[in-house]
Amino acid sequence: MEIRPTTDQDLDVFVDTIHAAFGRFSETPAEGGRGVWWSALEMDRNLLATAADGRPIGTAGAYSFELTLPGEVVVPAVGVTAVGVLPSHRRQGVLNAMMRHQLAELRSRGEVFAVLLASEALIYRRFGYGPATYTRQLTVQRHQAAFALPRARATAGTPTIGSVEVLRRAECGEILEEVYDRYRRAQPGALSRPHRWWAMGAGQPPISSAPRYVVVHRDVDGVPDGYASYSLDDHETLTVDETIATDDAVFTALAQFVLGHDLVTQVVFKHFPPEHPLRWQLADFRAGQVSRDTDWLWVRLLDVPRALTARGWSLDGELVLEVEDPFLGEHSRYLLTVRDGKGECVPTDREPDLSLDVSDLSSIYLGGTTPSMLVRAGHIQVHQPGVAALADALFRAERLPHCLHWF
C-alpha cells in the first residue's frame, strides 16, 4: 500500500473513491463546478491510499479553517474530511495508516488543532479525537408558540430591536457571509467559512444555492446582525437550517418571526444552541421539544503546550496534567499555570493532579465538556482532592462552544 498527497488531477479519482467507500454516487456539479460539497476541496492537502497494483482504496482530506477558542481567540485549524476506505479493503489497516500519515504531516506543518465531524462515534477516539461541541434540534408546535411576557424590567442597557425582512437565498449571499463571519469570531467552537465555500455553494444550506428563504435582521442603524435560513415542506413543517445572531435579542426576534409564519403547524430549529433561553421565553415551557441531542465538532490537540497557551482563561490557577497519547505512543506531563487570563504550559516532573487521554483533554479544551463529567465516567483520574472542581472552573468558557458548520 502507498499513501500519497493528491493534486488537482486526482480530483475525480478522489471523489469517486470516497463516494464508493460510503456507497453513494457522485452528484453532477453545476456549471463551473459549483453546488457540490467537493467543490471546496483543497487538493494539495488530501491523501490517497492505493493498493500494490495502483488502484485507489482510501482517502483522507483536510480543509484550512479558523477555530474560535474561549476568550474570542481565533486560531488556524485543520478540518479533517472525506475519510473512507473501500468496503473491499476494510479491516486491513488502511484507515490506521492514513490517519497516522495525516497526523504526522499536520505536525510537520506546525498545526496545533485538527477537527472533524464523526460519521461514526466509535472510530475517531482511538486516533486522539474527542467530542467537544454538541448540537440538538428543537421542535415547537405553532399553536403552543406564544411568548411569555418578560418579568424583568427593561434597563438602559437593554438592546433595541431593529427590523426584519425576507429575502431569497440568491439575493443575500454577501449578507450571509458577513453576518456569519462576525458571529463565528465571538462564538467558541465556531469554524470559519472561507469565501470559496460561499462562492462555490459548497456545503449544506444556506451555503449551497438550494432554494431557501432567509429572514434577515437589521439593527436600528440598518446593519444586518442576524439571519435565519428556512424552508417549508408540504406537511406544513417549517425547518430552520441555521439561526445566526450576534446576541440573544436578535435570535429571539428571528425565532418570533418563524414561529409566527402562516400555514405552519410546527417549526424545527436545527443546530439549536445548547444554552439558548428560547424554551424559557415561551409561555409553555413544554412547547419546545428537544431531539437529536448529539455530538458535533470533534477536536484533536496536536501540540498540547501550544494549545493550552492559545486559549483565553477566566480564572487563575494551576494544574499538572499527565497526558497519554496511545495512538502516537506518547506520554507527557505538563504544568498549566493561568494568570490574568493567560496560560503557560511547560513540561514538568511534578506529581500529576489529573491523568487523562489526549482525546479527553481535547473534549474538555473548548469548555463544552466538564472534566468532572469525565472523572465520573471513569475516563479522567484524579490524584488530589478538589482537583476536579478546580479543573471545571479553569476550563469553563464564557459561552458554551457551539459549531454549525458542516464539512
From TrEMBL:
Active site: Y124, F407
A molecular function GO annotation: aminoglycoside N-acetyltransferase activity
Keyword Acyltransferase carried by entry: yes
Residues engaged in binding acetyl-CoA: V83, G84, V85, R91, Q92, G93, V94, L95, N96, S119, E120
Signal peptide: none
Pfam short name (any one): Acetyltransf_17
PROSITE patterns documented for this protein: GNAT
Identification of the protein by name: Predicted acetyltransferase
Source taxonomy: Bacteria, Bacillati, Actinomycetota, Actinomycetes, Pseudonocardiales
